[in-house]
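[Automated response] Your request has been received and processed.

Submitted sequence:
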Amino acid sequence: MIPVLTTPRLVLRGFEARDWDAFAELNADPAVRRWLGGTVLSREQTWSQMETILGQWALRGYGLFAAEHDGRFLGRVGVLHPADRTEPELAWIIAEPFWGNGFATEAAAAVRDWAFASFARERLVSYIMPENSRSRRVAEKLGAVREGRIILRGFESDVWVHLRPGLGVAV
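Generated structure:
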């Protein structure tokens, strides 16, 4: 069962077939995909991505939410944890028309708080390309601390650490 999270402006819920068109549009936008390796995705690849997102919920009990504002699909935000990663990632992607409105910060804060309340994890990480100043600002607003830099799937990424409240400062 995928929970529904709400914030003052957003609903975060499981993906549904009705999200396909808007999610495909987001995945076809080079400005958005620049921060995800640069490759735009087709409609069919987007459908497969939705299947993977839903599968992670079944396998791990957490995953990515579809984010919406006033009934409009904004993007995806949640806890991404592919098999090749040792730590779960607090991840967000918002469609370009909605950039600059604080939606990513609001959604990611809600997911972070839910994840720490629901699972015995001491930390989440966010992998952000160094040039992605918008996502870096989101991580900073969330109180994350830059831990270092890695190569992730062929791309240089900064590792931002979100600690469970009460654990102190990441080093």
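Summary generated for your ticket: Residues 5-120 form a domain with the Aminopeptidase fold (CATH 3.40.630.30). The CA atoms of residues 83 and 151 lie 17 Å apart.
If you did not submit this request, please reply to this message.
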